[in-house]
Design brief:
heterodimer; A: 379 residues; alpha+beta; Butyryl-Coa Dehydrogenase, subunit A, domain 1; Butyryl-CoA Dehydrogenase, subunit A, domain 2; Butyryl-CoA Dehydrogenase, subunit A, domain 3; 3 domains; four-stranded antiparallel beta sheet; 12 helices; globular; B: alpha+beta; 2 domains; 10 helices; 9 strands; 12% strand
Chain lengths: 379, 318
C-alpha cells in the first residue's frame, strides 16, 4: 500500500497573477508591521489588512456569491494562504472565519445564519473563534460538558470553554456543546453559533509564555440564545466538528508558521555561507519543500472531494516537528544574541518560546499518530 | 496514469516480483530482454519514449522488490547518450558517479561518465575495475580510465543528480516494503499475551515510520514532475537530502519493532534496509546535497527562496 501517493496540485485560473495580487497587497500594508507582528502571523492581528483582504476579494473565496463569496476554487484559496504565510502577513483576525467557521456555515448553516455572518466575514469585518476545549476536555474532546438546554425561549447555555484563541477579538464563537441531557461521549453534541456580546458571557485572557494574549477562557452563565443559533443537525455536532478538523490539519500554516525565521536566517547569513551553515539552510529548505509537496497534495485531495484523514495527520505531525526543530537548530548552529534587536535575534527569541504551541493546536503528536495508526489498520 | 504507464507498471510488477530473490546473473538478462534500459530514449530513436514519471513508477517497483540488478543506471546512461546524440553500444551500461564508483561496474560492457560538462562513453577495455561492495552486498566498483573514450559530447545534465533521483525513487519502494514487513510482523507476533500491534508505543513508532515513507513518496513524485518540466536541480537536492532524513529516522524503527529476527540474514527486512542505508550515501550524501541546496538558497535570498519555490511549482500547472 502506497501511504502517500502524490495528488497533482492543478488549480484553475492564472496562479502567478493571483500570487502577484497577494504580494502587491502585502507590499501596500507591510510598512505598519513590526518584526514580531509577522511571526506566527495567522495568530497576529491587523484589522486594516483583514479589511483590505476582503475588499480585494481574497476572503470567502470559495463561498457562494450570494453570501459575499467569490466562488473560486479551494486550490486558489490555498495559493493565497501560502503567500500570506510566506510573507508573514498578520492574518489572524479573519483566519478562523475564512478557514473554518465560514466554510462550516456554508455547509450546515441556515439561510438566516448565512445572511448574518458570511458577507461580513468575506469583507474581513466579522471574526470568529472555535469553542472546543474545556477545563476537563482537551485532547479528549468527546468529553465536553458545557450544556445547552433546549427551552421554549431558546438554548440556555451554562459552562466554560478554555484555550479559545482569539475570542477577545471575535464577534462569534462556533461552539461544541452537549445538547442532550445525560448523553455520553460523541452522542448528544451539537454546534451553536454564539454571538459573544450575548448577556451572561465573560471572556478572560490567558497570557501565554511568550507574553502574548491569544488564549481566553469563556464563561457561560445562563446565556440565552435563539433556537436558530443551532448550526447543522442537533446531535450531529461531533461529525460536523471532525470534518472541520480535517480542513484544519493539512493547510500551509502547518509548515509555514515559522517561515519568517528561515527568511531572516538566510538574509542574515548572506549569499556566501560557510559549509556548515549552507548545510543547515539546505536541510531546512529540503524539509520545508517536502512538506509543501505533501500539503499541496492533501489540498488537492480535499478539493477532489476525498477525505484524506491520514494524509492530513501526517502533514500536521511532520510540519509540527519541522517547525519545532527550526528555532532549536538555528540556536545550536549560530551565535545569535537573543536579547538583540536584529530581525534574526527577535524572531529566534520569539520562536524558541512559541514553538511548544505548534503541537497543541489541532492535535498533539500522540493524537495524530494514533489517527495514522488507526488509518493503517494498527489498532 | 497514462495507458502506456499502466502497461509498463503491469509488466514491471510481474517481472520484478519474479526477480525478487534472483541473483544478478539471472536477473539482468531478463531486464535487458524486457527493454527497460531504453525507457527514456525517444521512440524515433528506437526507445520506449517514456517520461520521468514512468521511470519513477518502474524504479519504485524495483525498490519494492529489492531487485538485485541495475535498472536506474542503464536507463539514465541510455537517456544521456540519446540526448547527446551518441549511439549506445549493446550490453549493460552503467554510470560512473562523481565519487568514481559505478554500481555493477564489473559486469558492465560500457560505462558513462560526466566530467566538466563532457559526457564520455568508455567501452570495456578502456577502464579498470577495483571491486567493492555496497552495504547490500552488490557490486560498487571503483572505475579508473585506462584508455580513450569511445565517444564524447558536451552535456548539460547532472549525472549525479539523476542518479540521486533514481535512488529516491527506488527508496520510495523499499520504504514501503520495509513498512509492510513491519506491519505484518507486529500484527502476528504475540508477546505479553497480545499482538505487538496492540501496544500504543509500537503503533506510534510505526506511525512515525509511515510519515517518513510518505515524505519519500511525495518528494520522489515531485522530482519526477520537475524533471519532466525540464529542470529539477532544486527538487533533486531537496529530495535526496530528505531521503537521508527518512532513512535516518525510519530504518531504526523498522528494525526496532522487529527485534532479533529483523537482524538476521535470512529474514527479508535487511534486503530493504541495507539498500536504503547504502542509497543514502550514493550519488551524493546528505551533506553534499544539503550544502548544494543551501548555497542555491543563500544566493536567492530570504524572500527569493519562496518566490523560486512558487515559480517552480507553478510551471507544472498548465
Amino acid at each position: 500500500m502506497q501511504i502517500f501517493p502524490l495528488h497533482p496540485f492543478r488549480p484553475k485560473g492564472d496562479i502567478p497573477a493571483l500570487r502577484q495580487q497577494v504580494r502587491d497587497l502585502v507590499a501596500a500594508h507591510e510598512h505598519r508591521w513590526s518584526v514580531l507582528q509577522r511571526a506566527n502571523c495567522w495568530f497576529s492581528f491587523d484589522p486594516e489588512f483583514s479589511r483590505a483582504m476582503g475588499a480585494a476579494g481574497l476572503l470567502g473565496m470559495v463561498w457562494p456569491k450570494e453570501y459575499g463569496g467569490h466562488e473560486r476554487t479551494m486550490l486558489e484559496r490555498y495559493v493565497v494562504l501560502e503567500e500570506l504565510l510566506a510573507a508573514g502577513a498578520p492574518a489572524g483576525l479573519h483566519w478562523i472565519a475564512d478557514r473554518q467557521t465560514g466554510a462550516l456555515l456554508v455547509r450546515y448553516g441556515t439561510e438566516t445564519q448565512k445572511q448574518k455572518y458570511l458577507p461580513g466575514m468575506a469583507r474581513g469585518e466579522i471574526y470568529a473563534c472555535i469553542g472546543l476545549s474545556e477545563p476537563n476536555s482537551g485532547s479528549d474532546l468527546a468529553s465536553v460538558r458545557t450544556f445547552a438546554k433546549k427551552t421554549p425561549e431558546g438554548w440556555l447555555v451554562n459552562g466554560q470553554k478554555v484555550w479559545t484563541s482569539g475570542a477577545h477579538k471575535s464577534h462569534a464563537a462556533l461552539t461544541l456543546l452537549r445538547t442532550e441531557e445525560g448523553s455520553e461521549r460523541q452522542q448528544g453534541l451539537s454546534q451553536l453559533m454564539i454571538d459573544l456580546d450575548t448577556p451572561g458571557i465573560t471572556i478572560r485572557p490567558i497570557i501565554d509564555m511568550t507574553g502574548t494574549h491569544h488564549f481566553n477562557e469563556i464563561f457561560f452563565e445562563d446565556v440565552l440564545l435563539p433556537h436558530d443559533a443551532l448550526v447543522g443537525v442537533e446531535g450531529q455536532g461531533w461529525r460536523q466538528v471532525t470534518a472541520e478538523l480535517a480542513l484544519e490539519r493539512s493547510g500551509p500554516e502547518r509548515y509555514l508558521s515559522s517561515h519568517v525565521l528561515l527568511v531572516a536566517l538566510i538574509d542574515a547569513i548572506g549569499p556566501d555561507p560557510k559549509a556548515d551553515i549552507a548545510q543547515l539552510i539546505g536541510r531546512l529548505t529540503a524539509e520545508m519543500w517536502t512538506l509543501r509537496q505533501m500539503s499541496m497534495s492533501t489540498a488537492a485531495k480535499l478539493d477532489a472531494g476525498e477525505d484524506p484523514i491520514v494524509e492530513a495527520a501526517i502533514v500536521k505531525d511532520l510540519g509540527n516537528a519541522y517547525e519545532q526543530a527550526l528555532p532549536r537548530l538555528v540556536q545550536a548552529a549560530l551565535d545569535v544574541d537573543l536579547a538583540g534587536n536584529s530581525a534574526l535575534s527577535q524572531l529566534l527569541a520569539y520562536y524558541l518560546l512559541a514553538a511548544p504551541s505548534f503541537s497543541l493546536r489541532g492535535g498533539t503528536p500522540e493524537v495524530l499518530r494514533g489517527i495514522i495508526a488507526k488509518g493503517l489498520g494498527l489498532r | 496514469m497514462s495507458e502506456n504507464r499502466q502497461l509498463l507498471v503491469e509488466m514491471a510488477e510481474g517481472l520484478f516480483a519474479d526477480l525478487a530473490h534472483v541473483p544478478f546473473e539471472d536477473a539482468w538478462p531478463r531486464i535487458a530482454e524486457a527493454g527497460f534500459a531504453t525507457l527514456l530514449v525517444p521512440a524515433e530513436q528506437g526507445g520506449f519514449g517514456g517520461d520521468w514519471g514512468d521511470v519513477l513508477a518502474v524504479l519504485r517497483l524495483s525498490g519494492l522488490n529489492a531487485v538485485a540488478a541495475p535498472l536506474a543506471e542503464p536507463i539514465i546512461a541510455h537517456a544521456l547518450l540519446a540526448q547527446a546524440g551518441m549511439g549506445a553500444p549493446d550490453g549493460l551500461l552503467t554510470l560512473v558517479a562523481a565519487s568514481g564508483r559505478a554500481p555493477f561496474g564489473r559486469h558492465a560492457d560500457a560505462v558513462v561518465a560526466l566530467r566538466d560538462g563532457t559526457l564520455s562513453l568508455y567501452a570495456k577495455g578502456a577502464f579498470a575495475v577495483e571491486e567493492g561492495h555496497s552495504l547490500a552486498g552488490e557490486p560498487s566498483d571503483l572505475i579508473s580510465f585506462t584508455g580513450p573514450a569511445a565517444a564524447s559530447a558536451a552535456c548539460g545534465a547532472d549525472l549525479d543528480g539523476l542518479g540521486a533521483f533514481a535512488r529516491v525513487a527506488q527508496a520510495s519502494g523499499a520504504m514501503e516494503a520495509a513498512f509492510t514487513l513491519a506491519i505484518d510482523h507486529v500484527n502476528t507476533r504475540v508477546q505479553f499475551g497480545k499482538p505487538l500491534a496492540k501496544f500504543q508505543a509500537v503503533q506510534q513508532a510505526l506511525a512515525e515510520f509511515s510519515e517518513e515513507a510518505a515524505a519519500v513518496d511525495a518528494s520522489a513524485a515531485a522530482c519526477a514532475a520537475a524533471l519532466d518540466a525540464g529542470d529539477a536541480a532544486f527538487e533533486i537536492a531537496a529530495a535526496k537530502y530528505r531521503l537521508g532524513l527518512a532513512v535516518d529516522r525510519g530504518v531504526p524503527i523498522a528494525h526496532r519493532v522487529h527485534g532479533a529476527i529483523g537482524f538476521t540474514m535470512e529474514y527479508a527486512l535487511n534486503r530493504f534496509t541495507r539498500r536504503l542505508m547504502h542509497w543514502r550515501s550514493e550519488f551524493g550524501s546528505d551533506a553534499v546535497w544539503a550544502e548544494a541546496l543551501g548555497r542555491k538558497v543563500a544566493a536567492l535570498g530570504g524572500h527569493g527562496l519562496w518566490r523560486e519555490m512558487a515559480a517552480r511549482s507553478d510551471r507544472l500547472i498548465a
